[in-house]
Design brief:
This is Carbohydrate kinase. Belongs to the FGGY kinase family. It comes from Pantoea rwandensis. GO terms for molecular function: kinase activity; phosphotransferase activity, alcohol group as acceptor. Keywords: Kinase, Transferase. With 495 residues, the protein is of the alpha/beta class. The chain has two domains: 235 residues, ATPase, nucleotide binding domain (Nucleotidyltransferase, domain 5, 2-Layer Sandwich), CATH 3.30.420.40; 247 residues, Nucleotidyltransferase, domain 5, CATH 3.30.420.40. The protein has 17 helices and 20 strands. Strands 15-16-14-13-19-20 form a six-stranded mixed beta sheet, with helices on both faces. A five-stranded mixed beta sheet has the order 3-2-1-4-12, with helices on both faces. Strands 6-5-7 form a three-stranded antiparallel beta sheet. A hairpin with a 4-residue loop joins strand 5 and strand 6. Helix 12 packs across helix 13 and helix 14 packs across helix 17. The longest helix has 28 residues. The protein is globular. The termini are far apart.
């Protein structure tokens, strides 16, 4: 039985998932990573940690499957976008910076002050933000000349995996576009774009661009010894994990929308041309003829992980598995507290902080959880409002990520957004999207639409918006936004 391996590397976890050609999960294994914070605002992960995580996750995944590894016909990888991973001139690990890093905030502010951010957007369809790859490249050049002098290759997270498995130095269009490295006039890197960041000399350090489904190498003998994969298996260039999650949710055709509620709030719609009425946060590429308009920030379900980690005293029983049941028993009323889900960032380049508002001595832990669930959903709505304002309408969406496995969140998304919500049956949508790219690369399917048709199943259930709940949340959303505006000066004062 032919099998495809998908690897999904987020900021905190690396997963390896083995699929058959119908998209059925055969085995899953994961390896947790550790974020290093040498200074406030820094978030680093050594390249070696990714290599170790891939080795552990893949080998465990193959062992759990219990089948002959020679049945694996291709490997695809997805990884978190932006951030910056570097190899030296001998292709050995140098450093890794994650996409939740904030060290380059002053670099962004300088680009905004000079007006360069506007010119950057016109070329790349992405404004600078602290963890954007070219912003971090610029910061390294300005502040760490020793590291700069040793640079050999500048990669994204999934490119590190591809290099580890195959030895190839490559990037794909989806990741490079999402990282703000693509000049859309050329569908390529450009000196003019790099000059706006004052990093023209980084052009020689950027890897060759490939299509996501293109085979760029084969599993090497060394990688085979470390992972248990047979040497010689084709490895494709891979895909930006945001786009991978959309593909793994069945979202590949124009007008389809994907909402990913995990560490990041991802809200994305497939479009024919990246021609918007107003700027969007990020634009990416899906295959050769379609684009992905993306609004995103680190404001989603990771807030629940934090709450349960820090404040779960045992009353919630099974932690995250029970928190949805807790929220389901809260009776909606106007006196419930509100929550800003800005633990890791806001939705803008300006500082923002998380906070509960309107707490009274009568409020319970369940009331606070309700506010957190609602606040996360409100952050998604704010992004979706921006997509609609940019002239990108859609009438329904597929939800994936941790929130999709909740018994309460899908209905809350429908009620807050006012659109029907459906959920993909596969929980590992990022890994599935990467695996489907690998299948296309070795000719199992002619393109991603055909792969999705065969290998992605959508839950037959559908969550429809309830008018009375939409009205309830809409009124609270307006207060949520007013609070955000009022807190802006305070957030700036406290840094």
């Amino acid at each position: 039985m032919s099998q495809i391996l998908g690897i999904d590397a987020g900021n905190t976890m690396i997963k390896a998932v083995l699929f058959d050609l119908s998209g059925r999960v055969l085995s899953v294994a994961e390896c947790a990573g550790e974020t290093h914070q040498p200074q406030e605002g820094y978030a680093e992960r050594p390249v070696e940690d990714i290599w170790h995580g891939v080795s552990q996750a893949v080998s465990r995944c193959l062992q759990q499957a219990g089948s002959d590894p020679r049945e694996v016909i291709a490997v695809g990888a997805a990884g978190h976008g932006n951030g910056l991973y570097a190899l030296n001139k001998q292709q050995q690990p140098l450093f890794g910076i994650q996409s939740i890093d904030h060290r380059a905030l002053a670099t962004v502010q300088a680009l905004e002050l000079s007006g360069a951010d506007q010119a950057i957007y016109r070329l790349s369809l992405q404004k600078p933000w602290p963890a954007a790859t070219p912003v971090l490249i610029s910061w390294i050049k300005q502040h760490q000349p020793d590291r700069w002098s040793r640079l050999g290759h500048l990669l994204c997270a999934k490119d590190v995996i591809v290099h580890f498995l195959s030895g190839a130095i490559s990037a794909d269009y989806s990741d490079a576009a999402g990282a703000g490295l693509i000049d859309y006039r050329l569908r390529n890197y450009s000196r003019e774009l790099m000059a706006l960041y004052d990093i023209e000399d980084a052009l020689a350090l950027l890897p060759p661009l490939r299509e996501s489904c293109e085979v760029v190498g084969q599993v090497t003998e060394q990688a085979a010894r470390l992972t248990g994969l047979p040497a010689g298996i084709p490895v494709v260039a891979g895909i930006f994990d945001v786009v991978a999650s959309a593909v793994g949710s069945g979202v590949v055709e124009t007008g389809q929308a994907s909402i990913v509620a995990g560490t990041w709030s991802i809200n994305q719609v497939v479009v024919d041309t990246p021609d918007y009425l107003r700027p969007v946060f990020m634009n990416s590429i899906i295959e050769k003829d379609r684009f992905m308009a993306i609004e995103a920030s680190a404001t989603s379900a990771a807030n629940l992980d934090w709450f349960l980690r820090e404040f779960d005293d045992g009353r919630s029983g099974q932690g995250a598995a029970r928190s949805s049941d807790t929220v389901a028993h809260v009776e909606p009323n106007a006196q419930l507290p509100l929550y800003h889900p800005y633990l890791y960032s806001g939705r803008k380049s300006e500082p923002a902080k998380a906070g509960f508002y309107g707490l009274g001595g009568w409020h319970t832990r369940a009331d606070m959880l309700f506010a957190l669930f609602e606040g996360v959903t409100f952050a998604h709505r704010a992004h979706i409002d921006r997509l609609r304002a940019a002239g990108i309408p859609f009438t329904q969406a597929i939800l994936s990520g941790g929130a999709a496995r909740s018994c309460i969140w899908p209905q809350m998304f429908a009620d807050v957004l006012g659109i029907p919500i459906r959920v993909a049956e596969c929980k590992e949508t990022g890994a599935l999207g990467a695996a489907l790219c690998a299948g296309v690369g070795v000719g199992v399917w002619p393109h991603l639409a055909a792969a999705v048709q065969q290998a992605v199943q959508i839950n037959p259930g559908e969550w429809l918006p309830r008018p009375e709940r939409f009205a309830f949340h809409d009124a609270r959303y307006r207060v949520f936004k007013k609070l955000e505006l009022a807190m802006g000066e305070m957030w700036r004062d406290v840094g």
